[in-house]
Target: DUF4352 domain-containing protein
Amino acid sequence: MKKTTVIFIVILIAILVIALRDSFTINVGPENTDGVVGANDSTEDISGLETIESNEGPVSVAVTPLDLETASPSWSFDVTLNTHSEEIGEDLVAVSELLDDAGKIYKPTSWEGSPPGGHHRSGILKFNSISPRPESLELKINNVGGISVRSFKWDL
Model:
């Protein structure tokens, strides 16, 4: 092959790469478009429990249990809310509650994430750990996106 042909092919490949560079992406892990480190980075985290999604109404909500060990000082849930039609202004601490398998209700201790407002919010909802560890948990998020109660249940 002539030297000019090789140079032509290399230049042609370089032009194609430059022209198409925005058409391709390489994902090294799950996509995190909300800018909050640690939020929604995985569909299954250290708890081994899967993400549950609620897509009712104009707001979608996804919840992943993170750390539910009895020895942990707090239990954490990764919560992601998305919409394209309204502001998400709810105080997640005020509208959330955790129920154990005996029906006892626990209120969140904190929300570490996006402030109220906007169309995309994510963060970590924390509760005091429950001891002894229940056999199942239910996280309820009330009055988000016009849905009175969203329920997320896991068997531990």
Remarks:
- The chain has one domain: 1-156.
- The chain has a mean pLDDT of 83.
- Residues 3-20 form the longest helix (18 residues).
